[in-house]
Amino acid sequence: MEVAESKSKKAGGRLCSTCNQRKAALKRPKTLEQICRECFYEVFEEEIHQVIVGNQLFKAGERIAIGASGGKDSTVLAFVLSELNRRHNYGLDLFLLSIDEGISGYRDDSLQTVKRNEIQYGLPLKIVSYKDLYGWTMDEIVKVIGLKNNCTFCGVFRRQALDRGASLLKVDKIATGHNADDIAETVLLNILRGDIARLSRCTLITTGEDGPIPRCKPFKYTYEKEIMFTYAYFKRLDYFSTECIYSPNAYRGFAREFIKDLERLRPRAILDIIKSGENFRISTSTKMPEQGTCERCGYISSQKWCKACVLLEGLNRGLPKMGIVRSRGQNNERTKDMKQNKGTKNIESKQCGTLDF
Amino acid sequence: MQLTLEFGGGLELLCDSVKVHNVDVVPPKGSEKLIMKDLLSWVGTNLIKERPEMFMKGDSVRPGVLVLVNDCDWELSGQLDTTLEEKDVVVFISTLHGG
Protein backbone atom coordinates (compact mmCIF):
# COMPACT_ATOMS: atom_id res chain seq x y z
CA MET A 1 0.00 0.00 0.00
CA GLU A 2 2.82 2.39 0.86
CA VAL A 3 4.41 1.62 -2.41
CA ALA A 4 1.29 2.65 -4.22
CA GLU A 5 1.15 5.99 -2.47
CA SER A 6 4.74 6.95 -3.04
CA LYS A 7 4.47 5.96 -6.67
CA SER A 8 1.31 7.80 -7.44
CA LYS A 9 2.71 9.79 -10.30
CA LYS A 10 2.14 7.03 -12.82
CA ALA A 11 -1.61 7.26 -12.62
CA GLY A 12 -1.26 10.56 -10.86
CA GLY A 13 -3.49 12.43 -13.24
CA ARG A 14 -6.30 10.04 -12.63
CA LEU A 15 -8.43 10.76 -9.63
CA CYS A 16 -11.32 8.68 -8.44
CA SER A 17 -14.41 9.75 -10.34
CA THR A 18 -16.55 9.21 -7.24
CA CYS A 19 -14.69 11.12 -4.53
CA ASN A 20 -12.40 13.23 -6.72
CA GLN A 21 -9.77 13.06 -4.01
CA ARG A 22 -7.91 9.81 -4.02
CA LYS A 23 -5.98 8.16 -6.76
CA ALA A 24 -8.01 5.78 -8.90
CA ALA A 25 -6.98 2.14 -8.57
CA LEU A 26 -9.44 0.32 -10.78
CA LYS A 27 -11.31 0.78 -14.00
CA ARG A 28 -14.73 -0.70 -13.39
CA PRO A 29 -15.76 -2.99 -16.26
CA LYS A 30 -19.45 -2.39 -15.64
CA THR A 31 -19.31 1.39 -15.90
CA LEU A 32 -15.79 2.16 -17.17
CA GLU A 33 -15.44 4.56 -14.22
CA GLN A 34 -12.06 4.97 -12.63
CA ILE A 35 -12.44 4.54 -8.95
CA CYS A 36 -10.29 4.49 -5.84
CA ARG A 37 -10.03 1.51 -3.58
CA GLU A 38 -12.10 2.95 -0.75
CA CYS A 39 -14.99 4.09 -2.94
CA PHE A 40 -14.88 0.82 -4.79
CA TYR A 41 -15.26 -1.37 -1.71
CA GLU A 42 -18.23 0.68 -0.72
CA VAL A 43 -20.00 0.57 -4.06
CA PHE A 44 -19.16 -3.10 -4.61
CA GLU A 45 -20.80 -4.21 -1.38
CA GLU A 46 -23.69 -1.79 -1.80
CA GLU A 47 -24.49 -3.11 -5.27
CA ILE A 48 -24.61 -6.66 -4.00
CA HIS A 49 -26.83 -5.54 -1.14
CA GLN A 50 -29.18 -3.93 -3.66
CA VAL A 51 -29.28 -7.13 -5.72
CA ILE A 52 -30.13 -9.14 -2.59
CA VAL A 53 -32.84 -6.73 -1.47
CA GLY A 54 -34.24 -5.99 -4.92
CA ASN A 55 -34.62 -9.66 -5.78
CA GLN A 56 -35.69 -10.70 -2.29
CA LEU A 57 -33.07 -13.40 -2.25
CA PHE A 58 -33.38 -14.05 1.48
CA LYS A 59 -35.97 -13.75 4.23
CA ALA A 60 -35.22 -12.94 7.84
CA GLY A 61 -34.70 -16.05 9.93
CA GLU A 62 -33.63 -18.27 7.03
CA ARG A 63 -30.76 -20.72 7.20
CA ILE A 64 -28.48 -20.27 4.19
CA ALA A 65 -25.71 -22.57 2.98
CA ILE A 66 -22.93 -20.93 1.01
CA GLY A 67 -21.53 -23.40 -1.51
CA ALA A 68 -17.84 -23.08 -0.64
CA SER A 69 -15.16 -24.52 -2.88
CA GLY A 70 -12.24 -22.63 -1.42
CA GLY A 71 -11.93 -20.74 -4.71
CA LYS A 72 -12.12 -16.99 -5.07
CA ASP A 73 -15.81 -16.56 -5.83
CA SER A 74 -17.15 -18.56 -2.93
CA THR A 75 -14.56 -17.17 -0.54
CA VAL A 76 -15.56 -13.64 -1.48
CA LEU A 77 -19.23 -14.59 -1.26
CA ALA A 78 -18.78 -15.92 2.27
CA PHE A 79 -17.03 -12.72 3.23
CA VAL A 80 -19.57 -10.37 1.64
CA LEU A 81 -22.62 -12.24 2.90
CA SER A 82 -21.43 -12.39 6.48
CA GLU A 83 -20.52 -8.71 6.28
CA LEU A 84 -23.87 -7.62 4.80
CA ASN A 85 -25.81 -9.91 7.14
CA ARG A 86 -24.26 -8.09 10.07
CA ARG A 87 -24.43 -4.60 8.64
CA HIS A 88 -27.99 -4.72 7.37
CA ASN A 89 -29.44 -7.13 9.92
CA TYR A 90 -30.65 -9.68 7.38
CA GLY A 91 -31.20 -12.05 10.28
CA LEU A 92 -29.70 -15.02 8.42
CA ASP A 93 -27.98 -18.09 9.81
CA LEU A 94 -25.09 -18.66 7.43
CA PHE A 95 -23.23 -21.93 6.89
CA LEU A 96 -20.39 -23.04 4.65
CA LEU A 97 -21.05 -26.18 2.64
CA SER A 98 -18.20 -27.94 0.85
CA ILE A 99 -17.97 -30.98 -1.32
CA ASP A 100 -15.04 -33.36 -1.08
CA GLU A 101 -14.84 -35.05 -4.46
CA GLY A 102 -11.98 -37.20 -3.30
CA ILE A 103 -9.27 -35.84 -5.56
CA SER A 104 -6.03 -36.13 -3.68
CA GLY A 105 -3.69 -33.19 -3.96
CA TYR A 106 -6.42 -30.95 -5.30
CA ARG A 107 -9.41 -30.90 -3.04
CA ASP A 108 -7.28 -31.55 0.02
CA ASP A 109 -5.67 -28.16 -0.36
CA SER A 110 -8.81 -26.23 -1.14
CA LEU A 111 -10.64 -27.80 1.80
CA GLN A 112 -7.89 -26.45 4.00
CA THR A 113 -8.78 -23.00 2.70
CA VAL A 114 -12.44 -23.53 3.50
CA LYS A 115 -11.48 -24.63 7.00
CA ARG A 116 -9.59 -21.40 7.49
CA ASN A 117 -12.61 -19.48 6.19
CA GLU A 118 -14.70 -21.24 8.82
CA ILE A 119 -12.55 -19.71 11.51
CA GLN A 120 -12.05 -16.32 9.83
CA TYR A 121 -15.73 -15.62 9.31
CA GLY A 122 -17.05 -17.68 12.20
CA LEU A 123 -19.36 -19.69 9.92
CA PRO A 124 -20.05 -23.37 10.70
CA LEU A 125 -18.71 -25.68 7.98
CA LYS A 126 -20.15 -28.94 6.67
CA ILE A 127 -18.18 -31.14 4.29
CA VAL A 128 -19.92 -33.92 2.37
CA SER A 129 -17.86 -36.39 0.38
CA TYR A 130 -18.54 -38.35 -2.80
CA LYS A 131 -17.20 -41.37 -0.96
CA ASP A 132 -19.89 -41.12 1.71
CA LEU A 133 -22.70 -40.24 -0.68
CA TYR A 134 -21.89 -42.48 -3.61
CA GLY A 135 -19.30 -44.94 -2.37
CA TRP A 136 -16.73 -43.70 -4.91
CA THR A 137 -14.07 -41.01 -4.81
CA MET A 138 -13.16 -39.19 -8.03
CA ASP A 139 -9.72 -40.81 -7.79
CA GLU A 140 -11.38 -44.23 -7.87
CA ILE A 141 -13.72 -43.21 -10.69
CA VAL A 142 -10.83 -41.96 -12.82
CA LYS A 143 -9.05 -45.27 -12.29
CA VAL A 144 -12.03 -47.04 -13.85
CA ILE A 145 -13.11 -44.65 -16.59
CA GLY A 146 -9.93 -42.77 -17.41
CA LEU A 147 -9.68 -39.08 -18.15
CA LYS A 148 -12.23 -38.78 -20.88
CA ASN A 149 -15.62 -38.30 -19.26
CA ASN A 150 -14.59 -37.79 -15.68
CA CYS A 151 -15.87 -34.21 -15.62
CA THR A 152 -19.35 -35.50 -16.42
CA PHE A 153 -19.33 -37.70 -13.35
CA CYS A 154 -17.89 -34.98 -11.19
CA GLY A 155 -20.37 -32.34 -12.34
CA VAL A 156 -23.46 -34.53 -11.99
CA PHE A 157 -22.37 -35.81 -8.60
CA ARG A 158 -21.48 -32.37 -7.30
CA ARG A 159 -24.82 -30.90 -8.14
CA GLN A 160 -26.60 -33.53 -6.11
CA ALA A 161 -24.05 -33.57 -3.34
CA LEU A 162 -24.67 -29.90 -2.69
CA ASP A 163 -28.39 -30.55 -2.31
CA ARG A 164 -27.83 -33.48 -0.03
CA GLY A 165 -25.40 -31.54 2.13
CA ALA A 166 -27.90 -28.71 2.28
CA SER A 167 -30.64 -30.99 3.50
CA LEU A 168 -28.31 -32.38 6.17
CA LEU A 169 -27.74 -28.81 7.31
CA LYS A 170 -31.51 -28.20 7.17
CA VAL A 171 -31.01 -24.95 5.28
CA ASP A 172 -33.72 -23.08 3.41
CA LYS A 173 -31.56 -22.03 0.50
CA ILE A 174 -28.13 -22.42 -1.10
CA ALA A 175 -26.16 -19.38 -2.26
CA THR A 176 -23.47 -20.00 -4.86
CA GLY A 177 -20.63 -17.79 -6.05
CA HIS A 178 -21.50 -17.74 -9.74
CA ASN A 179 -20.55 -14.38 -11.17
CA ALA A 180 -21.66 -12.42 -14.24
CA ASP A 181 -18.89 -13.91 -16.38
CA ASP A 182 -19.94 -17.45 -15.44
CA ILE A 183 -23.56 -16.75 -16.31
CA ALA A 184 -22.75 -15.13 -19.65
CA GLU A 185 -20.63 -18.17 -20.42
CA THR A 186 -23.48 -20.52 -19.52
CA VAL A 187 -25.90 -18.58 -21.74
CA LEU A 188 -23.54 -19.04 -24.67
CA LEU A 189 -22.96 -22.71 -23.96
CA ASN A 190 -26.67 -23.42 -23.71
CA ILE A 191 -27.27 -21.68 -27.02
CA LEU A 192 -24.48 -23.67 -28.64
CA ARG A 193 -25.84 -26.90 -27.23
CA GLY A 194 -29.40 -26.00 -28.11
CA ASP A 195 -30.38 -26.71 -24.54
CA ILE A 196 -33.62 -24.75 -24.34
CA ALA A 197 -34.55 -25.94 -20.87
CA ARG A 198 -31.30 -24.79 -19.33
CA LEU A 199 -31.18 -21.62 -21.39
CA SER A 200 -34.44 -20.46 -19.89
CA ARG A 201 -33.26 -21.31 -16.39
CA CYS A 202 -29.64 -20.26 -16.39
CA THR A 203 -30.16 -16.53 -16.09
CA LEU A 204 -32.60 -16.78 -13.19
CA ILE A 205 -31.14 -15.37 -10.02
CA THR A 206 -33.06 -17.90 -7.95
CA THR A 207 -33.77 -21.41 -9.25
CA GLY A 208 -35.50 -24.47 -7.90
CA GLU A 209 -38.12 -22.59 -5.95
CA ASP A 210 -40.57 -25.40 -6.57
CA GLY A 211 -38.03 -27.94 -5.33
CA PRO A 212 -36.86 -28.73 -1.83
CA ILE A 213 -33.90 -26.36 -1.69
CA PRO A 214 -33.79 -23.27 -3.93
CA ARG A 215 -30.49 -21.83 -5.06
CA CYS A 216 -29.53 -18.23 -5.61
CA LYS A 217 -26.67 -16.29 -7.14
CA PRO A 218 -26.00 -13.01 -5.34
CA PHE A 219 -23.09 -12.33 -7.75
CA LYS A 220 -25.23 -12.59 -10.86
CA TYR A 221 -24.33 -9.03 -11.89
CA THR A 222 -20.85 -8.97 -10.38
CA TYR A 223 -17.87 -9.01 -12.72
CA GLU A 224 -15.18 -11.55 -12.08
CA LYS A 225 -12.60 -8.84 -12.45
CA GLU A 226 -14.07 -6.95 -9.52
CA ILE A 227 -14.36 -10.04 -7.35
CA MET A 228 -10.73 -10.70 -8.03
CA PHE A 229 -9.63 -7.13 -7.54
CA THR A 230 -11.35 -6.27 -4.35
CA TYR A 231 -10.96 -9.27 -2.27
CA ALA A 232 -8.52 -11.76 -3.56
CA TYR A 233 -5.90 -9.14 -3.97
CA PHE A 234 -6.38 -5.89 -2.11
CA LYS A 235 -7.80 -7.39 1.02
CA ARG A 236 -5.43 -10.31 0.74
CA LEU A 237 -8.18 -12.76 1.47
CA ASP A 238 -7.25 -16.31 1.86
CA TYR A 239 -8.23 -18.09 -1.28
CA PHE A 240 -7.11 -21.06 -3.15
CA SER A 241 -6.52 -21.53 -6.79
CA THR A 242 -5.17 -24.36 -8.74
CA GLU A 243 -6.31 -26.53 -11.55
CA CYS A 244 -8.18 -29.71 -11.05
CA ILE A 245 -5.51 -32.34 -11.68
CA TYR A 246 -7.90 -34.35 -13.81
CA SER A 247 -8.88 -31.52 -16.05
CA PRO A 248 -5.86 -29.35 -16.69
CA ASN A 249 -7.36 -27.99 -19.88
CA ALA A 250 -10.82 -27.25 -18.64
CA TYR A 251 -10.26 -23.53 -18.51
CA ARG A 252 -9.52 -23.54 -22.18
CA GLY A 253 -13.19 -23.86 -22.75
CA PHE A 254 -14.20 -22.04 -25.84
CA ALA A 255 -17.03 -20.09 -24.28
CA ARG A 256 -14.91 -18.84 -21.42
CA GLU A 257 -12.18 -17.60 -23.65
CA PHE A 258 -14.66 -16.01 -26.01
CA ILE A 259 -16.33 -14.14 -23.15
CA LYS A 260 -12.98 -12.80 -21.98
CA ASP A 261 -12.12 -11.68 -25.50
CA LEU A 262 -15.44 -9.87 -25.72
CA GLU A 263 -14.88 -8.27 -22.36
CA ARG A 264 -11.61 -6.83 -23.51
CA LEU A 265 -13.28 -5.23 -26.52
CA ARG A 266 -16.34 -4.04 -24.66
CA PRO A 267 -16.82 -4.94 -21.00
CA ARG A 268 -20.57 -4.33 -21.11
CA ALA A 269 -20.88 -7.33 -23.40
CA ILE A 270 -21.05 -9.61 -20.37
CA LEU A 271 -24.14 -7.92 -18.96
CA ASP A 272 -25.63 -7.69 -22.45
CA ILE A 273 -25.34 -11.45 -22.94
CA ILE A 274 -27.05 -12.05 -19.60
CA LYS A 275 -29.76 -9.65 -20.68
CA SER A 276 -30.19 -11.45 -24.00
CA GLY A 277 -30.44 -14.73 -22.14
CA GLU A 278 -33.16 -13.30 -19.95
CA ASN A 279 -35.06 -12.01 -22.93
CA PHE A 280 -35.18 -15.30 -24.77
CA ARG A 281 -38.79 -16.26 -25.27
CA ILE A 282 -39.33 -19.96 -25.35
CA SER A 283 -42.28 -20.68 -27.60
CA THR A 284 -45.17 -22.16 -25.66
CA SER A 285 -45.38 -24.99 -28.15
CA THR A 286 -41.85 -26.11 -27.31
CA LYS A 287 -42.02 -29.35 -25.44
CA MET A 288 -40.05 -28.93 -22.25
CA PRO A 289 -38.86 -31.86 -20.19
CA GLU A 290 -41.15 -32.56 -17.30
CA GLN A 291 -39.70 -32.42 -13.86
CA GLY A 292 -40.30 -35.54 -11.85
CA THR A 293 -38.40 -37.49 -9.26
CA CYS A 294 -35.88 -40.27 -9.63
CA GLU A 295 -37.43 -43.67 -8.93
CA ARG A 296 -34.26 -44.83 -7.32
CA CYS A 297 -33.14 -42.01 -5.02
CA GLY A 298 -35.98 -39.50 -5.05
CA TYR A 299 -33.89 -36.66 -6.40
CA ILE A 300 -35.50 -34.35 -8.97
CA SER A 301 -35.19 -35.78 -12.44
CA SER A 302 -36.89 -35.44 -15.79
CA GLN A 303 -36.18 -39.10 -16.46
CA LYS A 304 -37.04 -42.31 -14.72
CA TRP A 305 -33.65 -42.33 -13.05
CA CYS A 306 -31.65 -39.23 -12.28
CA LYS A 307 -28.34 -38.77 -14.02
CA ALA A 308 -26.33 -39.54 -10.91
CA CYS A 309 -28.09 -42.88 -10.45
CA VAL A 310 -27.52 -43.83 -14.09
CA LEU A 311 -23.82 -43.01 -13.82
CA LEU A 312 -23.53 -44.78 -10.49
CA GLU A 313 -25.29 -47.87 -11.78
CA GLY A 314 -22.79 -47.99 -14.63
CA LEU A 315 -19.84 -47.70 -12.25
CA ASN A 316 -21.15 -50.35 -9.90
CA ARG A 317 -21.91 -52.76 -12.74
CA GLY A 318 -18.58 -52.24 -14.38
CA LEU A 319 -20.16 -50.43 -17.35
CA PRO A 320 -18.86 -46.98 -16.63
CA LYS A 321 -19.76 -45.63 -20.05
CA MET A 322 -23.43 -46.02 -19.25
CA GLY A 323 -25.15 -42.69 -19.45
CA ILE A 324 -22.31 -41.11 -21.35
CA VAL A 325 -22.26 -42.59 -24.81
CA ARG A 326 -25.06 -41.79 -27.20
CA SER A 327 -28.04 -44.07 -26.95
CA ARG A 328 -27.73 -45.06 -30.58
CA GLY A 329 -25.48 -47.60 -29.02
CA GLN A 330 -22.61 -49.53 -30.47
CA ASN A 331 -23.60 -52.74 -28.79
CA ASN A 332 -26.83 -54.32 -27.74
CA GLU A 333 -26.08 -54.60 -24.08
CA ARG A 334 -25.61 -50.89 -23.84
CA THR A 335 -28.63 -50.11 -25.96
CA LYS A 336 -30.75 -52.17 -23.61
CA ASP A 337 -29.32 -50.34 -20.66
CA MET A 338 -30.07 -47.03 -22.20
CA LYS A 339 -33.69 -47.89 -22.80
CA GLN A 340 -34.60 -47.60 -19.18
CA ASN A 341 -33.75 -43.97 -19.31
CA LYS A 342 -34.98 -43.34 -22.79
CA GLY A 343 -34.24 -39.97 -24.13
CA THR A 344 -31.63 -39.24 -21.53
CA LYS A 345 -29.75 -36.38 -23.01
CA ASN A 346 -26.17 -37.02 -23.57
CA ILE A 347 -24.05 -34.80 -21.43
CA GLU A 348 -20.87 -34.66 -23.37
CA SER A 349 -17.77 -34.29 -21.37
CA LYS A 350 -18.12 -30.67 -20.59
CA GLN A 351 -15.88 -28.43 -18.70
CA CYS A 352 -15.21 -29.22 -15.18
CA GLY A 353 -16.62 -26.65 -12.87
CA THR A 354 -20.00 -25.49 -11.91
CA LEU A 355 -21.51 -24.09 -15.03
CA ASP A 356 -25.04 -25.20 -14.55
CA PHE A 357 -25.74 -25.42 -10.92
CA MET B 1 15.95 -2.19 -13.23
CA GLN B 2 14.88 -4.00 -10.07
CA LEU B 3 11.26 -5.15 -10.17
CA THR B 4 9.08 -7.40 -8.08
CA LEU B 5 6.78 -9.63 -10.07
CA GLU B 6 3.97 -11.60 -8.48
CA PHE B 7 1.96 -14.36 -10.13
CA GLY B 8 -1.37 -15.53 -8.77
CA GLY B 9 -4.64 -17.24 -9.53
CA GLY B 10 -2.84 -20.25 -10.97
CA LEU B 11 -0.31 -18.39 -13.14
CA GLU B 12 2.42 -19.30 -10.66
CA LEU B 13 2.02 -22.86 -11.92
CA LEU B 14 3.53 -21.71 -15.22
CA CYS B 15 6.70 -20.55 -13.52
CA ASP B 16 7.77 -23.41 -11.28
CA SER B 17 5.04 -22.63 -8.73
CA VAL B 18 7.00 -19.62 -7.50
CA LYS B 19 4.68 -16.71 -6.76
CA VAL B 20 7.10 -13.85 -6.13
CA HIS B 21 10.08 -13.12 -8.35
CA ASN B 22 12.59 -10.36 -7.67
CA VAL B 23 14.11 -9.63 -11.02
CA ASP B 24 16.46 -7.29 -12.79
CA VAL B 25 15.27 -6.28 -16.22
CA VAL B 26 17.27 -4.12 -18.63
CA PRO B 27 15.44 -1.77 -21.03
CA PRO B 28 15.73 -2.85 -24.66
CA LYS B 29 18.74 -1.63 -26.63
CA GLY B 30 18.38 1.91 -27.89
CA SER B 31 15.69 2.72 -25.35
CA GLU B 32 16.04 4.42 -22.01
CA LYS B 33 12.80 3.33 -20.51
CA LEU B 34 11.17 0.02 -19.88
CA ILE B 35 7.50 -0.34 -20.71
CA MET B 36 5.08 -3.15 -19.91
CA LYS B 37 5.32 -4.46 -23.44
CA ASP B 38 9.04 -5.06 -22.95
CA LEU B 39 8.46 -6.62 -19.56
CA LEU B 40 5.87 -9.05 -20.92
CA SER B 41 8.22 -10.34 -23.57
CA TRP B 42 10.98 -10.62 -20.95
CA VAL B 43 8.66 -12.62 -18.67
CA GLY B 44 7.64 -14.83 -21.56
CA THR B 45 11.27 -15.64 -22.30
CA ASN B 46 12.69 -15.84 -18.79
CA LEU B 47 10.04 -16.88 -16.32
CA ILE B 48 7.29 -18.82 -18.05
CA LYS B 49 8.38 -22.42 -18.18
CA GLU B 50 5.33 -24.07 -19.65
CA ARG B 51 2.15 -23.35 -21.57
CA PRO B 52 2.99 -19.74 -22.49
CA GLU B 53 -0.40 -19.47 -24.19
CA MET B 54 -1.95 -19.40 -20.72
CA PHE B 55 -0.17 -16.14 -20.07
CA MET B 56 0.22 -14.36 -23.39
CA LYS B 57 -2.01 -13.81 -26.37
CA GLY B 58 -0.43 -11.82 -29.17
CA ASP B 59 1.86 -9.27 -27.58
CA SER B 60 -0.31 -8.75 -24.50
CA VAL B 61 -1.49 -10.88 -21.60
CA ARG B 62 -4.36 -13.13 -22.45
CA PRO B 63 -7.80 -11.73 -21.70
CA GLY B 64 -8.85 -12.70 -18.20
CA VAL B 65 -5.41 -12.03 -16.71
CA LEU B 66 -5.46 -8.99 -14.46
CA VAL B 67 -2.42 -6.78 -14.28
CA LEU B 68 -1.68 -4.43 -11.40
CA VAL B 69 1.24 -2.02 -11.38
CA ASN B 70 1.89 -0.84 -7.82
CA ASP B 71 -1.58 -2.00 -6.79
CA CYS B 72 -3.17 -0.12 -9.66
CA ASP B 73 -5.18 -1.55 -12.55
CA TRP B 74 -2.96 -1.28 -15.60
CA GLU B 75 -5.96 -0.22 -17.64
CA LEU B 76 -5.55 3.13 -15.89
CA SER B 77 -1.89 3.53 -16.68
CA GLY B 78 -1.83 2.72 -20.36
CA GLN B 79 -1.62 -1.08 -20.38
CA LEU B 80 1.25 -2.10 -22.68
CA ASP B 81 2.59 1.46 -22.73
CA THR B 82 2.84 1.76 -18.96
CA THR B 83 6.33 2.96 -18.10
CA LEU B 84 8.01 1.00 -15.35
CA GLU B 85 10.30 2.44 -12.75
CA GLU B 86 12.84 1.17 -10.29
CA LYS B 87 11.30 -1.04 -7.56
CA ASP B 88 7.87 -1.22 -9.16
CA VAL B 89 5.66 -4.11 -8.13
CA VAL B 90 3.80 -5.82 -10.97
CA VAL B 91 1.13 -8.40 -10.22
CA PHE B 92 -0.43 -10.84 -12.68
CA ILE B 93 -3.54 -12.73 -11.58
CA SER B 94 -5.45 -15.13 -13.74
CA THR B 95 -9.21 -15.34 -13.45
CA LEU B 96 -9.31 -18.32 -15.73
CA HIS B 97 -8.99 -20.97 -13.09
CA GLY B 98 -11.87 -22.29 -11.08
CA GLY B 99 -13.86 -20.25 -8.65
TrEMBL record, chain A:
<dbReference type="GO" id="GO:0016779">
    <property type="term" value="F:nucleotidyltransferase activity"/>
</dbReference>
<keyword id="KW-0067">ATP-binding</keyword>
<feature type="domain" description="Cytoplasmic tRNA 2-thiolation protein 1 C-terminal">
    <location>
        <begin position="292"/>
        <end position="322"/>
    </location>
</feature>
<dbReference type="Pfam" id="PF01171">
    <property type="entry name" value="ATP_bind_3"/>
</dbReference>
<dbReference type="GO" id="GO:0002144">
    <property type="term" value="C:cytosolic tRNA wobble base thiouridylase complex"/>
</dbReference>
<dbReference type="GO" id="GO:0005524">
    <property type="term" value="F:ATP binding"/>
</dbReference>
<feature type="binding site">
    <location>
        <position position="99"/>
    </location>
    <ligand>
        <name>ATP</name>
    </ligand>
</feature>
<keyword id="KW-0963">Cytoplasm</keyword>
<comment type="similarity">
    <text>Belongs to the TtcA family. CTU1/NCS6/ATPBD3 subfamily.</text>
</comment>
<dbReference type="Pfam" id="PF16503">
    <property type="entry name" value="zn-ribbon_14"/>
</dbReference>
<feature type="region of interest" description="Disordered">
    <location>
        <begin position="325"/>
        <end position="345"/>
    </location>
</feature>
<feature type="binding site">
    <location>
        <position position="73"/>
    </location>
    <ligand>
        <name>ATP</name>
    </ligand>
</feature>
<dbReference type="InterPro" id="IPR032442">
    <property type="entry name" value="CTU1_C"/>
</dbReference>
<dbReference type="GO" id="GO:0000049">
    <property type="term" value="F:tRNA binding"/>
</dbReference>
<feature type="binding site">
    <location>
        <position position="177"/>
    </location>
    <ligand>
        <name>ATP</name>
    </ligand>
</feature>
<feature type="binding site">
    <location>
        <begin position="67"/>
        <end position="69"/>
    </location>
    <ligand>
        <name>ATP</name>
    </ligand>
</feature>
<keyword id="KW-0547">Nucleotide-binding</keyword>
<feature type="domain" description="tRNA(Ile)-lysidine/2-thiocytidine synthase N-terminal">
    <location>
        <begin position="64"/>
        <end position="247"/>
    </location>
</feature>
<keyword id="KW-0820">tRNA-binding</keyword>
<protein>
    <recommendedName>
        <fullName>Cytoplasmic tRNA 2-thiolation protein 1</fullName>
        <ecNumber>2.7.7.-</ecNumber>
    </recommendedName>
</protein>
<keyword id="KW-0808">Transferase</keyword>
<dbReference type="InterPro" id="IPR000541">
    <property type="entry name" value="Ncs6/Tuc1/Ctu1"/>
</dbReference>
Automatic annotation (TrEMBL), chain B:
<dbReference type="InterPro" id="IPR012675">
    <property type="entry name" value="Beta-grasp_dom_sf"/>
</dbReference>
<dbReference type="GO" id="GO:0005634">
    <property type="term" value="C:nucleus"/>
</dbReference>
<dbReference type="GO" id="GO:0034227">
    <property type="term" value="P:tRNA thio-modification"/>
</dbReference>
<comment type="pathway">
    <text>tRNA modification; 5-methoxycarbonylmethyl-2-thiouridine-tRNA biosynthesis.</text>
</comment>
<dbReference type="Pfam" id="PF09138">
    <property type="entry name" value="Urm1"/>
</dbReference>
<dbReference type="GO" id="GO:0002098">
    <property type="term" value="P:tRNA wobble uridine modification"/>
</dbReference>
<keyword id="KW-0963">Cytoplasm</keyword>
<feature type="modified residue" description="1-thioglycine">
    <location>
        <position position="99"/>
    </location>
</feature>
<dbReference type="GO" id="GO:0032447">
    <property type="term" value="P:protein urmylation"/>
</dbReference>
<feature type="cross-link" description="Glycyl lysine isopeptide (Gly-Lys) (interchain with K-? in acceptor proteins)">
    <location>
        <position position="99"/>
    </location>
</feature>
<dbReference type="InterPro" id="IPR015221">
    <property type="entry name" value="Urm1"/>
</dbReference>
<dbReference type="GO" id="GO:0005829">
    <property type="term" value="C:cytosol"/>
</dbReference>
<dbReference type="GO" id="GO:0031386">
    <property type="term" value="F:protein tag activity"/>
</dbReference>
<protein>
    <recommendedName>
        <fullName>Ubiquitin-related modifier 1 homolog</fullName>
    </recommendedName>
</protein>
<dbReference type="InterPro" id="IPR016155">
    <property type="entry name" value="Mopterin_synth/thiamin_S_b"/>
</dbReference>
<keyword id="KW-0833">Ubl conjugation pathway</keyword>
<keyword id="KW-0819">tRNA processing</keyword>
<keyword id="KW-1017">Isopeptide bond</keyword>
<comment type="similarity">
    <text>Belongs to the URM1 family.</text>
</comment>
<comment type="function">
    <text>Acts as a sulfur carrier required for 2-thiolation of mcm(5)S(2)U at tRNA wobble positions of cytosolic tRNA(Lys), tRNA(Glu) and tRNA(Gln). Serves as sulfur donor in tRNA 2-thiolation reaction by being thiocarboxylated (-COSH) at its C-terminus by MOCS3. The sulfur is then transferred to tRNA to form 2-thiolation of mcm(5)S(2)U. Also acts as a ubiquitin-like protein (UBL) that is covalently conjugated via an isopeptide bond to lysine residues of target proteins.</text>
</comment>
